[in-house]
Amino acid sequence: MTRKLLLLLAPTMIAFQAMAVEPAADVANPQSSVLPAEECDTEDDEWSFWWEAGANIASNYLWRGYDQPYTGHMFDPAIQPSVTLGYGMFYIDLWYNFSTISKYQEFDMTLGFDYENLSITVYDVWCANGADFWKNDFLDDKNHSLTATIEYTFFDRLRLHWGTTFLHSGDWLYNEDGTRKRRAFSSYFEVAYKQPVKDLFDIEVVAGASPWTGPFWTAGKQVCVDGEYWLDYDPVNPPVKGFNVTNLSLTFSRDFEVGCCTIPVSAGYTYNPTTNRHYALIKTGFSF
Hints:
Layout: H1 2-21, H2 24-28, H3 37-40, E1 49-58, E2 62-63, E3 66-67, E4 78-87, E5 90-99, E6 105-115, E7 118-128, E8 144-154, E9 158-168, E10 172-174, E11 180-183, E12 187-197, E13 201-210, H4 215-218, E14 222-225, E15 228-231, E16 244-258, E17 261-272, E18 277-287
Antiparallel strand pairs: 1-4, 1-18, 2-3, 4-5, 5-6, 6-7, 7-8, 8-9, 9-12, 10-11, 12-13, 13-16, 14-15, 16-17, 17-18
């Protein structure tokens, strides 16, 4: 009986010994972590507290197909630190951007909900060219906007995104005499498809558009007159009206795992048909 039991257990023992000697998993999956997964995982159950912190460095800050300083320059390196605090499916995210050449600053405060393939967020964005986040400009309500988004991913490949701005001092439609007509509720929707290429990298194709006139982020140039924001109908840089495609992009990306630290690396190309501008974007960073 003992000999039969040893014969049955021998193949299993040999297999475990081979796995211990040969690092086959690291060869097959170059993105595998150096440390065992259980040493990096701090979540005990679905309703536990969790946190994440990191920073990115990007060759430019692009959002919805626009470079946020609205300079049209392809190269404006941006430093983007962030920290996220969560409980289960809910989280609060703080994110900051500083563009080194244009000096453009932005601070986002996000309240989010993630459940499986569904993501819902409400976030306040502070941004303004020439304003300083570290001074009293942050308290100026004219530089803030309140936006809500909803996003769903099908089959871990096809992602649908919608965002609408509800509050912003410049998000208005105007009559011909310059008086306010009504809030514009500037919006953006996006369709994206991501395809892994073996274990090498991911390819993502994105198409995004403004479904109707959105002066908050597609109006081009805006000016402030007597404390109020008005659209500047300069024919060189006029505001756009109606439906406009603003974001056509192709991105190659890969995440590298080093211990408990993730290092994302991406390179891509973006074309904005509305402004007829082309951008190449390179980004890397870390998170843990």
